[in-house]
Amino acid sequence: MSRVCFATVFACILAVGPARGLADEEARQEPRPPDLVREVQPILRQNCGKCHGADEQNGNLRFDERATLFAQADSGVRPVVAGHPAKSELIRRIRSTDEDDRMPPEGKRLAAAEIEVLTRWVAEGAKWPEATVTTIPVLSRSERRQTSEHWSFQPLTQPQPPAVKDETWPRNAIDRFIHARREAAGIKVAPDASPEVLIRRASYGLTGLPPTQEEVREFVGKYRGADAAPLADRSAAPLAELVDRLLSRPAYGERWGRHWMDWVRYADTAGDNSDFPIPQAYLYRNYIIDSFNNDLPYDRFLIEQIAGDLLPAENQEQRNRQTIATGYLAMSRRFGSLVERYPWHLTVEDTIDNLGRTVLGLTISCARCHDHKFDPISTRDYYGVYGFFASTRYPFPGIELFQTQKDLVPLVPDAEAAAALAPFQEKTDKLTARLEKLLAEWEERSLENAAKASSATVDEQRKLKDELSGMLIKARRAGEELAEHLKTIPDLPTAYAVQDRKPTNARIQLKGEPERPGAEVPRKFLDVLGGQQLESDIAESASGRLELARWIASPDNPLTARVIVNRIWQRHFGTGLVSTPSDFGVRGEPPTHPELLDWLAGELIRSGWSLKHLHRLIMNSRTYQLSSFDVEEILAADPGNRWYWKFNRQRLDAESIRDTLLLVAGSLDTAMPREPHPFPSSKDWKYTQHHPFKDEYSSNKRSVYLMTRRLTARPYFQTFDGPDPNACTSRRDQSVTALQALYFVNDEFLHEQARRFAERLLGEENDEQERLSLAFNTVLCRPPSSQETALLQEHLAAVRAQAAGDADVELQAWSSVARSLLRLNEFLYVD
């Protein structure tokens, strides 16, 4: 008899009792469990197996497996304590008369005889066979994770660039991966892009700005005299030189720093219901931009942002930079406005959610209340990670009832900071201790009164409520006194950054509610990615964030390199090799070119995690240099361009539109601001839920430097699909709306830049045709056609006739031409 058949028959024996013949023979061949177990197993299977079996393991409980039946559940209790029915949660729950507490939760209760069998079994030592034969293989949850076959959890492969039939087409390894798949699918390819299109594409892609006339002229000129060679061959050397130049410019860090800011939901305000400003946030913004410009290795970039404060530093400057880097964690959203029960758990949850989506491409936060429904991430995994951040002190940005900052990190040597704070430290400690004591007393009394409330009379309930109100008033006054005292302390240079606090393991929050603590979980990484735990000496002395950061940035982690490679590919081509860039889990889309994805991830690691190296690889490929023109026969075969037979046309994002308007007008200030925005002094803050922070500081700096509020976005960025500063923005929308068209017709800012552009045209050229050529080359990176020239000359004549007699006729006419060019799709889209 096969093993499967034997398992089925044995399950039937357990369910209905022994049978004759074959069952007796098999019983003689296999060791039989004790009699009580033979009665217990069918009871557990029939009544508990649906929620606590192989398929569902609610609460980390599985009643057909020895390992979890006697282990601690997520709630912190043990279902079975051998020899002690009174201490066994299983017995308590099946005996309970509370409808919300008893088990099974639905249907009739267990029969008295069944309850008696289970109770007697526990009392007599809860014997259980070492191995249980069931109708399906029994795998522990850790085994299920380790055997996950989902592609993204597998180690990186080391694919070799494949051979292709047309050896003349590829220019590098990327082209071989792409073209081999195209050939296999029978898909033809679009022609190569023109040099004018290519330089505009590369300039916007790496810097967010258009090329100058001189750059276009030089780039295009290098093709003269080589008309017989294929365009792709002619473009190789000039494009490689161009990419290197663009990568060396400060504008590169501004462009790609803005992408990172999208993913980590950067903002200059905290996001609480008063949206308190964070004057120090700009330091983290500048750290991001400088890191991209310096090509800081990506693994180091991650480690510094998660645990830069825990890294060794050779001098104060390095220490400050690494401290500022942890602004990534500090940037997590704040919630609420009350001093009591401040919801720090929501800030930690926001941290984990963003870390998971941005860096690992996983929706880890789905495991906060229960095991992830799709991915191999358990609630214990979630709270294993939670402990790292529960052991971290976040800066306090201020709230409605505590109108100042605290717990920021000084950017001066410790001795200097201690000396400056020494005259105020005793009072600070005293007021802090008083506030914490009052809050602790209030919280303890709140819990006591909640327990009494159900049985109290109306008068007693009113008395309990008044008592709590009185305690709360005292606590709030203590908070206000501490806040006022902190405002008297001299200002020191500080960073909105994190630091370690007393290390602690997190306890599972049942149903995600911190008021319902369950089992304690040691700080650890996700089981599916290795499940590393902190060594005991580190766990007792530090948060463990540095170890977590190193696990995340390890070359052995199969997700980190894949995710960032996919994000960079997505920003260049408009869509990623994985079209769900923040979800590499089971519900995400599989990669269209898995071998290419792994080859690029491996190449990133082999290059020392250089992102600039990745840009060079992608942009010097012939795949990147294809035109965006549709070819009807190819479009019909692959309308979604999954095989990259052409370049995906992309709309300029909001920042590139605004920055280009300023640039062509000669108004753009390209210097990086090294000072904070002009926020009011914290001593004057009086923000509330009904009167939140709403200031707006306009400037002619690049858009990446504009002050960003979390709760009230600028209308311009809402119109042109700007990022959401409250969550990871994996990809920008490219909507087409009437509001966008109206912006180009009516907006005051656009009219002002068009007027300045017209003044530039009038000042630089005297000939009408030369002015038109300058306008086209500046906005569209190409000269006008004869038909376009004639059309705009007619337009100029019409405006002049309409404005006849005005003092500024020429300025009006050329301003109208400027606005006309800036409304063109050719300006708004990158081909």
How would a crystallographer describe the biggest sheet?
A: 2 strands, antiparallel
| Residue fraction in strands | under 5%
Mean pLDDT: 88
Number of E-state strands: 8
Description:
The protein contains 34 helices and eight strands. Helix content is about 50%, strand content about 5%. A hairpin with a 7-residue loop joins strand 5 and strand 6. The N terminus is likely disordered.
Based on the model shown, name its key terms.
831 residues; mainly alpha; two-stranded antiparallel ribbon; 34 helices; 8 strands; disordered N terminus
Question: Could you give the topology of this structure?
Answer:
Layout lengths: L2 H14 L5 H8 L5 H14 L17 H4 L19 H7 L16 H12 L17 H6 L26 H13 L9 H13 L5 H9 L9 H17 L2 H14 L17 H13 L4 H10 L8 H10 L1 H4 L13 H17 L18 H12 L1 E2 L15 E2 L3 H40 L4 H29 L7 E2 L3 E2 L5 E4 L7 E5 L14 H6 L3 H8 L7 H14 L20 H13 L4 H9 L12 H6 L12 E2 L2 H11 L50 H5 L18 H9 L1 H17 L3 H13 L5 H17 L6 H14 L2 H4 E2 L1
Antiparallel strand pairs: 1-4, 2-3, 5-6, 7-8
Helix pairs in contact: 3-6, 9-10, 9-11, 11-25, 12-13, 14-15, 14-22, 17-18, 19-20, 23-24, 23-25, 30-33, 32-33
In short:
The protein is an all-alpha fold and 831 residues long.
